[in-house]
Specification:
The chain is α/β, with parallel strands linked by helices. The chain is built from 5 helices and 5 strands. Helix 2 runs parallel beside helix 3. The two termini are 14 Å apart.
Length: 126
Amino acid sequence: MDKINKKILLVEDDKNFLWILEQGFNSNGFSTIHALNAEDGLVLAGKEKPDLILIDIKLPQMNGIEMAKKIKEKGINSKMVFLTGFDDPEHISQAIEAVSGTDYIVKSDVNINQIVSLVKEKLSIK
């Protein structure tokens, strides 16, 4: 697989799902870094300046929506995609209102290949 010159920050507290995400992105040529909570994710977002941040909404210490708001407040221009188990309209609208231009993926509705495809689309990769 050709290397894609794009870095993805994965912020996910489920280690098994995180492993699946890393394998899927790495096998498709992406560079990945990860955090298991929002605080560490914020630090990595500022330090690494990833091209895209995949954020779980339900995280320890701070939820992913608050993390996304803080990322924007810090002037970090990474694209963001929320990836979560919540599929109710309240969480979807909160996530989309938090940061304009974000996408929202319900974990149970997709597989890793679909997630990678959405990220490629978001980053304009063919």
